[in-house]
Each structure stands twice: as C-alpha cells, then as structure tokens.
C-alpha cells in the first residue's frame, strides 16, 4: 500500500512524501455463490488504494455450465472424473476466458459496497483486474486406480533430478543461466500418505500428486507473470494458459521410466491364472513351475523362426529340459501344453497348417520368465557349497552383483 512520511527540504521545511509500504489493516472478505462460477470470494482492503482480490475456480465454473446444459458428469473434487460427452466438456472448458472473469467481477461490484463511491467512479477511479496467481491443471484419471499409487511413486523415484536447471529449460521452454533467480531443486513431500512432487522455476512451480487415489494431477502455478516476460493484465490470460498447459505436458514427456519390461500386471496375471476362452478351459502357467519354465525356454528358441514350429519340433526339446526321455513326455501332454499356450495368447496356429508361431506377447512373456528365473530367482536362492572363506566371499560378490542388478531394473524390494 501507499503511505506518507515526513521529509525535509534544503531549507529545513517539512513536506509529505508518498512511499510504498506495508501496514496492518482490516480486510473485508465477501464469500459468494455465483450462478455461473459457483463459490468464490472478493477481498477488499480498507486502506488506500483500496486493493481488491478476486479468487475463483475454473473447475467450479465448468461444473455449473455442465449442469445448466444437462450434461451428465461425475465430479472429482475441483475437477471432472468422467463424462459420456468428454469432448463436449473440453470444448466448454476452453471457452472460459478473461471476458467472463471480468464480467463476474463487475457484476458483483455493482451489488456490493466497496470503497469507490459513484463520485469516484465518475472521476475515473475504477478497479482493473490483473493476474496475481494462476493455476493450470491437467488431471489424468486412471482406469486402474489401485495401481496408480505404485505408478506415481515410481515416477517420483525416477525423476528426483527433475528440478535441475537443464530440466527446467525443457519444462518451461525458458533459458536458465547462472543469473536466473530462484533455487532449482526437487522436493518430494508426503502429507499423510499422499506423496507429491514439486519443482520450481523462479516464482512459478509445478506440482504433481496422486489425486484422491484416482488420478494423476499435474498443475502449474504461475505467481509472477514477469517470469515469462508477460504483463499482469487479465488480457494476458490466454498467453499464460498456453505456458501453463505446455509446462504440464512437457513435464509428462520429460518423466520417463528406465525400466519397462513390457509385461503389464494384467498380462502377467492372465498368464499365471486359469482362463476360459469360448467355453474352452486352460490352466494357468505358474511362474517357477519346471514344466512351464521348460515351455518358456522352448518358445525362446522359436521366437525368430519365420516358419513357426510343429508339435514334434518342441516335444523333444521340452522333454530334454525336463530331464526326461522322449517317450516319457508323450504326445498327449505336449498337445495339452500347446493348447494352454494358445488359449493364453502366447502362440497362434498358422492358418491351414499344423504349425504354430509365437505371438509378440508370447515372446515377451517367455523372455521375461526365463531371464527373471535364470538371472534373479535362481542365483538369489543359491547358497555357497563350501563353508570356506573363499566360498563366502564369492557368495557375497554374487549377492552384491544381484542387488545392483535388481536395483538397476527396479525389481528390488
């Protein structure tokens, strides 16, 4: 606010001088429920120059618009969880602009008492809205909320360096130098059991968190428009909107998981559990079972075969991996195993032939089973065969190498 202080000129006479300062004043909050914007508030300062503050939520405005148009939707706090007319909802959301925000402010100024009397307004003293703070949110609702928390914690662990200057350049599309003010860091906060990721650029920041256990929320908050060489006038809202939503999208592109074995939880669960396809039943392919492991190893041998394989091509190899004679692993069990692989989608029959070929899912699943068992499970379960010191050292080196491997592929407990 502005205050006056006493100053003296060269002759020693005193005169008042207007300065910028702070003071403890009485603010007046008016809480409203608007027909179009929902809950909002206007705050008036009781001291010159009688600043006012308008705070509203665009998601609440959107909910009112959907209700007025009889468009069904399911809310998610200050957001939309789902709607059968998602594209129409987005088109309506895009129409919120500076004109509508200024209009609701003028509407309530006409109804509320405020410091500028009609005589003041006639003399040209009026409120002009500027942008003190703006938030732009991207909410991605998860179809499997149960796994969302695991996914987000993985995102946090993989992107602890997201606050570095070079990363900030990618997210905000701004050059960062040694003269750029502000600290560049990543903060991971845990409030209760909900983790959140915070990165900062000057006075602006990006926050990411798992919203109500159902969605991944990414929101950019701009606290100073001059961080992006844009004025504070409300007419600059479209430019800020573009910056905010672009920052959200860039953050999601920068975030990446170093480990992706291409085996989703659903696929793995489908393979290991019994399945019914067109009234045909097939037992699950249990991980660690010797017979299943032999089948997976055999599939790896034919993963690159352009002509596929036949019944007799795999029977001998599976029998050998099981340590049995060829006759001990009869044609009946082999047919049963091929049927299991086919119904689980790991192999498919070549049309008009008695050959099979491995599917992309089958190749991924087979390699996953074999590698995880041979390179992780079996070494971890091994014990040194000798009680000698050299044997103990060898096992310690194996354990350390295995721990580093599991940490690298993020399979550690």
Description of the molecule:
The protein has three domains: 23-128, no CATH class; 130-257, Alpha-D-Glucose-1,6-Bisphosphate, Chain A, domain 4; 265-381, Arc Repressor Mutant, subunit A, CATH 1.10.10. Helices cover 39% and strands 22% of the residues. It has 13 helices and 16 strands. The strands form six sheets. It has a five-stranded antiparallel β-sheet, covered by helices on one side. Helix 9 crosses helix 12 (360-381). The longest helix has 22 residues, at 360-381. The radius of gyration is 33 Å and the shape is elongated. Mean pLDDT is 82; it is low at 165-171 and 258-262.
Instruction: Count all strands and give the number.
Output: 16
Domains, number: 3
How much of the residues is beta strand, in percent?
A: 15-25%
* CATH uppermost class of the largest domain: Alpha Beta
Please report the distance between the alpha carbons of the first and last residues.
Answer: 56 Å
User: What is the ordering of alpha helices and beta strands?
Assistant: EEEEEHEEHHHEHHEEEEHHEEHHHEEHH
Give the topology.
Blueprint (H helix, E strand, L loop, with lengths): L1 E7 L5 E7 L6 E8 L3 E8 L6 E4 L2 H11 L5 E2 L4 E3 L3 H8 L4 H12 L8 H5 L11 E8 L3 H14 L6 H8 L13 E6 L2 E8 L2 E8 L3 E8 L14 H18 L10 H8 L2 E3 L2 E3 L7 H12 L9 H12 L8 H13 L3 E3 L6 E3 L1 H22 L7 H20 L5
Helix pairs in contact: 6-7, 9-10, 9-12, 10-11, 12-13
Briefly summarize what is shown.
The protein folds into three domains: 23-128, no CATH class; 130-257, Alpha-D-Glucose-1,6-Bisphosphate, Chain A, domain 4, CATH 3.30.530; 265-381, Arc Repressor Mutant, subunit A (Orthogonal Bundle), CATH 1.10.10. 39% of the residues lie in helices and 22% in strands.
């Amino acid at each position: 606010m502005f205050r006056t202080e006493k100053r003296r000129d060269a002759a020693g006479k005193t005169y008042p001088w207007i300065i910028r300062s702070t003071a403890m004043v009485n603010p007046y909050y008016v809480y409203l429920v608007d027909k179009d914007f929902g809950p909002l508030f206007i705050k008036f300062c009781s001291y010159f120059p009688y600043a006012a503050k308008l705070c509203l939520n665009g998601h609440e405005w959107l909910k009112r618009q959907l209700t007025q148009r009889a468009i069904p939707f399911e809310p998610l706090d200050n957001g939309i969880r789902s709607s059968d007319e998602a594209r129409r909802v987005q088109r309506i959301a895009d129409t919120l602009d500076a004109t509508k925000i200024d209009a609701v402010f003028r509407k309530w100024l006409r109804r509320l008492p405020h410091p500028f009397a009609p005589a003041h307004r006639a003399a040209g003293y009026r409120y002009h809205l500027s942008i003190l703070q703006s938030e732009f949110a991207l909410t991605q609702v998860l179809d499997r909320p149960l796994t969302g928390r695991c996914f987000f914690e993985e995102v946090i662990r993989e992107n602890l360096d997201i606050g570095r200057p070079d990363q900030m350049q990618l997210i905000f599309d701004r050059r960062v130098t040694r003269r750029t003010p502000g600290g560049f860091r990543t903060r991971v906060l845990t409030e209760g059991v909900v983790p959140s990721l915070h990165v900062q650029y000057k006075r602006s920041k990006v926050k990411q968190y798992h919203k109500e256990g159902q969605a991944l929320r990414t929101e950019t908050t701009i606290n100073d428009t001059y961080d992006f060489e844009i004025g504070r006038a409300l007419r600059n809202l479209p430019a800020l909107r573009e910056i905010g939503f672009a920052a959200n999208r860039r953050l999601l592109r920068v975030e990446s998981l170093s480990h992706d074995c291409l085996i989703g939880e659903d696929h793995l669960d489908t393979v290991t559990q019994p399945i019914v396809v067109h009234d045909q039943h097939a037992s699950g392919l249990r991980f660690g079972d010797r017979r299943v492991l032999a089948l997976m190893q055999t599939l790896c041998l034919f993963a690159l075969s352009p002509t596929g394989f036949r019944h007799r091509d795999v029977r001998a190899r599976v029998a050998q991996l099981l340590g049995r004679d060829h006759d001990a692993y009869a044609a009946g069990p082999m047919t049963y195993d091929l049927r299991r692989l086919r119904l689980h989608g790991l192999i498919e029959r070549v049309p008009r032939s008695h050959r099979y070929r491995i599917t992309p899912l089958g190749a991924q699943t087979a390699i996953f089973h074999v590698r995880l068992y041979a390179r992780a499970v079996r070494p971890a379960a091994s014990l040194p065969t000798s009680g000698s010191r050299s044997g103990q050292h060898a096992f310690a080196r194996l354990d350390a190498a295995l721990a580093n491997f599991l940490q690298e592929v993020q399979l550690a407990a």
